[in-house]
């Protein structure tokens, strides 16, 4: 106990919690007999460490009572005593290991609970005191931690990566001089606000990103925040993002005046640590009043704006020019490898003609270069000859625009990829889209039975730099593509929209309708009949759901993008008899309450429904009587406390075709509704990142056709029901990151079709003896799970294959929220 006392940790009141944690982490990592257990405990404490450091820094500023941290300090003390006790037992006899293991597990569980619930609630409360937005807001956040049913505390999700500077995979070509000039202005005390303006595709965002990563800039500014604004600026939403990014609980401002007060208070607090740089990226014309709201007279606070337009009244304007010839050439060579058997003369001539067409625009050079990479000399010549020979002066009425410079890359696509590329214009600018959303749409629009084939389309478009694919976590092989994120440069989205708008509005195959406040586009006001097969409707947070009537007899895919807290589905959906795919995505801060759900009832061809961040009851789905529904996806949805089951509904008749249910990040789902186990046609059941789920219903054994069962990252799931051994068609089981899982069903060996098990971070899960009966089994796990569970079986199970994969924690996922 000498180290404990020497740190001043003899009493909670005088303790620095972070110092106590550092000491225990150091000790916990020493004992090789308990490597998996002690490593897991250390990881939990390391996750806790940043939060405790922040609370330590507040103790003198706030009246942070010792009682609030007593529980945590007692747990840390127990952990310290235990790991010190292990010092003299580095080679613990096998029969004693279980005792120590249980003690370590109990301490780890206590720390995890405090970290996930109590500590974050205290942190929100204390941070909001410092922020001083208002007493009613403090009360609101603190009340979130009050016990709801007398036994459990509701954690508040918080996302700290909302305003981070984007990563740069490689140093951009041709920005050395602009970077030097802009950096000089930014660090000039006389310059407060800067605007980097240039036409689309010149690399404004890339330059701003590179500037934020510059060592001199990072050394000067203590805080750098990066926000994409786009064509529909939302001041309140950006302030909300800034608050959440800095660890404060989410709050919906009633008006912009409240948001202004919140922004000022936040900046005043952050400025105590050092200078602040706020980047507002891609601001559109007419946003002068929007920009003025961020102008707060504070020392050491600067704003950098990127835009296609000048804002002379806002601050210093820096005009970014297209790349000079030498830089443009270097960038093209970087993207397009030289074709074989090309003479220097021919090669230089081709480069010259291509660069003349690209006009120095980095995005054009990149896209064209990738389309030519690895191609033959004849392909290069054919591409060049297809272009006009005139000068390409930007925005000259008689010359190609930047979008027209990109058109050859679109024209070069095979027909099916052209259609897929055009579909990307149906999503919002700068929207981050799960790959599964797009794949579901393509499978039904184009009659593709394989999700793998549709994923190949995305990969093909990404390989030509027409979109970007980001892997959020671990890649899966069974057609589960929730772990892939799709993004697209705004100029490429404009290209897709432009190509889709060549026909009159009502005759277009793809139609986008934007509704701001309650203002509808003129074409929609007289009950028009639209021909579109893909309809996208986006509304803002002021939309009141007062719909006009539109006749959409040919719509097969409907994309609804909303931001309001209450949203009534348009009644004209009931007339979409050809509708196959419905995607509803809410970009507001809280789940939107959906009404008029019954308009979906009995649609004869509706096969896929995806709901994201909405509030529904799961019984609503059954009552729709959708006889053709094949897939139901629920992401970040709220279901409320009322949980009715379907005693009076024959589920097998109400949902006779349902084959896949995907439930992801649904925080308040604590049990699976009984009717799910009555969907006898179900082949895939995925329940992921649902932390309140602790048990699955025993009736899950009734799903005789189930082939894939995924319950990954459900950290409180303690066991799988024994009835799982009745899933005779199960071929893939994913229990990865189910940290609380303690055992598999005793008779799991009966599942003779089970060929794959994914179980990263499941080394505490007991394997029954019957697992040896599984033939040709393939297991994916990390080192600890392999050593603890499977190493001893590898010699006895001759057909067992264990793939060791290190778990990666990819923070790209935070960009989804």
Molecular structure report:
Belongs to the disease resistance NB-LRR family. This is RPW8 domain-containing protein. GO terms for molecular function: ATP binding. With about 800 residues, this protein is α/β, with parallel strands linked by helices. Among the domains are: about 1-145, no CATH class; about 175-320, 3-Layer(aba) Sandwich (Rossmann fold); about 615-770, Alpha-Beta Horseshoe (Leucine-rich repeat, LRR (right-handed beta-alpha superhelix)). Helices cover about 35% and strands about 15% of the residues. The strands form four sheets. A 13-stranded parallel sheet has the order 9-10-11-13-15-17-18-19-20-21-22-23-24, sandwiched between helices. Strands 2-3-4-1-5 form a five-stranded parallel sheet, covered by helices on one side. A three-stranded antiparallel sheet has the order 6-8-7. Helix 23 (about 650-655) links the parallel strand 17 and strand 18. Helix 5 (about 95-130) runs antiparallel to helix 6 (about 135-145), helix 17 packs across helix 21 and helix 19 crosses helix 20 (about 450-465). The chain is globular and about 70 Å long. The relative contact order is 0.05.
